[in-house]
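Usage

Read records sequentially. Each one opens with the input sequence:
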Amino acid sequence: MRSSGSGARVVISDRHSLFRVYTMKRHILLPLLTYPDATSEIMVANAVMLARHMQATLTVCPVEITIPDVSNALSSLIIDAARMAREAGALSRKRASALTQKVVDEARAASVDLRTREIKVEEPFVVDALAEASRAYDLVLLELAGLSRPIVEAVLFGSGRPLILYPPAPFGGRIDRVAIAWDGSRAAARAAHDASFFLEQASKVCLLSVIDEKPVTYETGDCLIENLLKSGVTAEATRVRAHGKPVGEVLQSKALELRADLLVMGGFGHSRLREFVLGGATEAVLTSITLPVLLSH
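and closes with the structure output:
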């Protein structure tokens, strides 16, 4: 039996042994980046449509940056660093205002519950501020474009929350078919769990395994498929060979071939002095994506 609402099913019994079912509304965070690159209007539309599909509350968080003045007498003779810092801050504030208004307008038109919060932070600390802010939400939405990768990595590995990474292209919001990148690992299991809402609502779920890249045990995946089937979700396994191609590219290509609207993946990586050492599939996805990818670490 599937959840019919927008959140997790909760069952409460009273002293008469009657049961009441209600749903917890999900909360999505959309950071609005403003400097040096700004979040695109396409990403705004994608976020609003996904929130509408999930019947979720969408919180937008414009990030207004300031750049510390580190000029000295010598550098001031070459460039006016103080003026450049002021102009960057003004541009960030202007973009934050315009993007926020864009989200407000689109959310109103789509009847999406919208909230706003803002972050004002010095530019070097944006990644840490967004990783911390993300911890209060069920899901974070980010766009892989321009110079956003450090923020994507910080949220993925530092927030403890799943994120959906979008390519710079429009998507309708509805997620009907889901592919799960499955290798039997802890990260893959975590990602599948974090994608529960989408699995429950999907018309079809495919466990997608690359079988010639590293040893993969199939028993756990078969058990997961069995559990999904018992829960009323149509699910099946698909196994492919990479033939030496990057695993991330193979997974995305096969997901598109299966007409998946979302690819679910575990994010592999750890930090060495703030520089992330990434797994091969994660590295490929953070370099180039062709469909929305839910990443969880």
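Summary fields computed downstream for this record:
- Residues 177-296 form a domain with the Rossmann fold fold (CATH 3.40.50.620).
- Confidence is low (pLDDT under 50) at residues 1-8, 10-21, 270-278.
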